[in-house]
Amino acid sequence: MTLRVPKAELPAELREALTKQLGAVPEPVEVMYNNPPVATSSQQFSSQVSSWDEADASLKTFAHMAVAAQVGCSWCLDINYFLAQNQQLDLAKASQVPRWRESDVFTPLERDVMAYAEAMTSTPTTVTDELAASLLARLGPAALVELTVFIGFANMASRVNTAHGITSQGYSDACEIPLARRPGQAGVASTR
Q1: CATH fold of 54-174, please?
Q2: What pLDDT digit, counting tens, does each position of 62-110 carry?
Q3: The pTM is what?
Q4: Distances (CA, A) of 32 to 4, 39, 41, 70, 181
Q5: Which pLDDT tens digit goes with each residue over 146-190?
Q6: Exposure string (b/e) for 24-53, b if CB count within 10 Å is 16 or more?
Q7: Comparing C-alpha atoms, which of 110, 109, 128 is closest to residue 119?
Q8: CATH 1.20.1290.10 domain extents, the chain
Q9: Residue 88 CB: number of other CB atoms within 10 A?
Q10: Which residues fall within 8 angstroms of residue 44, CB to CB, at 6 or more apart?
C-alpha cells in the first residue's frame, strides 16, 4: 500500500521533537499536516487520551492493538507494540495481541477487554449487555467509560491511517520479542 495523501512539511520544532521522542516522524502526523488545524486538534486529543489513568495502561494498549488488528492498521500495531516496550508493559502479551484468541498468555479480564474492543469495532457493534456488565463489575464505571472512549479513539486512528494508506514504519523492529501475525484472515495487516 502506498500513501494516498502526500506528506506535508512539518514545522521544524515539531519535526525535531517527534524525532527526538520516537526516532522518526510518524507518517500519520506528516499526512495530517496537510490540514494543520486538523493535525493540531488530533495531536491534542491524542495527548489528552494518553493522559487518562482510570483504566490500566496495558488493558488500553491491548484494546488498541486488538482494534488495529481487526481493522488492518499495521501502523497502529507497530507503534503500540513499540510504546508497550517503552512503557515497560508485558511484551510477551503485547506481542500476542494479534492472535489473542489462540494465545494462552492472557488473563480472563484481558481477553474480555480485547473482545470488547473487537465488538466495538464491528459494524454494527456487537457489544453484549453481559460483556459490558462483566467489565463494569470488574473495572468500575470510570474505567469502563475511559476504556470505551479510548477504544473509540483507537478506531478513529486505525481507520484514518488505513484510509490514508499509512502502514508500519518499523517502530516494533526495536522490540526484543517479534510481534505475532494475526491468523490468516483476509484484509488484516501485519507489521512485517
Answers
A1: AhpD-like (1.20.1290)
A2: 999 999 999 999 999 999 998 898 889 999 999 999 999 999 999 999 9
A3: 0.90
A4: 12, 5, 10, 23, 28
A5: 999 999 999 999 999 999 999 999 888 877 777 787 786 544 444
A6: ebbbbbbbbbeeeeebeebbeeeeebeebe
A7: 128
A8: 54-174
A9: 9
A10: none
